[in-house]
Amino acid sequence: MGLITGLLTLPLAPVRGTVWLAERIEEQARAELYDESAIRAGLIELEEARETGELGPEEIDAAEDALVERLMEIRGVVGKEGNG
Q1: Is the Cβ–Cβ distance between 29 and 70 less than 8 Å?
Q2: Residues near 39 by Cβ (< 8 Å), separated by ≥ 6?
Q3: What digits encode the pLDDT tens for the residues 33-62?
Q4: What is d(CA 19, CA 12) in angstroms, rounded to the nearest whole number?
C-alpha cells in the first residue's frame, strides 16, 4: 500500500477494525454453537437442574429439544463435509 493510498483510506480504519472484530466474534460464536462437548455439558446441566427441581419440566424439555436439535445438525453437517 502506498503512502497516498494509506492516507486516503486512513479514515476507514475504524470501520475495517470493526468489521474484522465482528468477523472474529462470529467465528467464535459459530465454534461454540457447533461444539459437541458444550452441548453435552448443557445436557448434563439440564439433568442436574431436573434433579434439583431448579427448572420446570416444560423448560427442561424445551432446552433439551434445542440442544439435541443442534447436536443432530452438527452431526448432519459433519457427515456432509466428510462426503465432499
Answers
A1: no
A2: 67, 70, 71, 74
A3: 888 888 899 999 999 999 999 989 999 999
A4: 11
Give the DSSP H or E segment for 75: helix 57-83
User: In which region does residue 55 sit, left (phi positive, over 0), alpha (psi from -120 to 50) or beta (all else)?
Assistant: beta
| Residues 67 and 39 sit within 8 Å (Cβ to Cβ) | yes
Distance CA 45, CA 51 (A): 10
Look at residue 15 and tell me whether its pLDDT is greater than 50: yes
**In which element (H, E) is residue 37 found?**
helix 36-52
- Would you report the helix, strand and coil content of the chain in percent, each value rounded to 5? 90, 0, 10
pTM equals: 0.55
